[in-house]
Amino acid sequence: MKRLQKPAIAILTLVFIVLILANISISDVGRSLLSIGWWTLALCLLLHFCVYVLRSLAMNVFLSGEVPFRYLLVSHLIHNFYLNILPVNMGELSLPLMLSRFVSKTRSFSVLLITRLVGVLVMLALFLTSVFYVFHGFSQLDLNFSRIVTGIIVLTAIPGMLFLLWKSNLSKLPLMKKLIAKLTGLKDSIVYSFQHELTLAKAIYLILITLAYTTFLALFFQLILTRLSISVSIIEMFFIMSLHLAVLILPIKSFAGIGTTEGVWMLGMVALGIGSKVALESGVVIHIISLFSATVFFLIGLAVRHLTDRKAA
Question: pTM for this one?
């Protein structure tokens, strides 16, 4: 099964590339990228760096005193690159591996999952707020209700089918029994962190940090769309970002998120009344700039980590 995974991902990525190229104008995408401008790109990088800092602060709520904040930040710079490039969410494993010199992988991964869970809950609240905002006519854009309902049905049906498949066969396999045992240990670590480390003050602080980095990320995307002459408010941006988060649970993965990322942006903007071709091309531009930013900070993270290791040696 594992031997088929990489070829399947490669084929799926290639299919997505062909579909994207068949439905966009490469020259229009190129002109859009050139219209961004260096100053706007620099501001995008600054906004993205703020997201890194705030995400590091979120994990620092639990790891303060165990992992130096500077190392935590540098690890996030590297981790986010793997998270954006590697398929099947394998990028998530890179952060616990990098932090293993200070804490156990189970400990860091449980903290990572807690911050991810808080992120999901905050995004769910923002999604409900954005839907209320758009449905009640405060938006100047026209929301396509039927597309949203279709998306919700699909996102609900697929996890349900996977759960039934899990119950019928997968949980009986020896490999899955080992995985379940590891997940049980991970669950115990998460429960311990909730019960003994997460006070009310820390919980509020964590929620505020999560809301802050989500807002900075929304500003990152909004800035790009503004340069492309596409008007999308922050609350509408939360709507699109929540769709992207929902799609991450689907078992459809490709290299560097090619295809799925563009598809989500197109779905979200079309639902808000933007033309499908413009929505798809702007999704391609956003994806390219996001990968560029992740690559820049990845290289910075590697350089800082190399210099730090040399000094320590």
Answer: 0.76
